[in-house]
Amino acid sequence: MGMVSEFREFAVKGNVVDMAVGIIIGGAFGKIVSSLVNDVIMPPIGVVMGGVNFTDLSITLKAAAGDAPAVMLNYGMFIQSVVDFLIVAWAVFLMIKGMNSLRRTKEPPADKT
Question: Which position has the higher pLDDT, 74 or 103?
Answer without folding.
Answer: 74
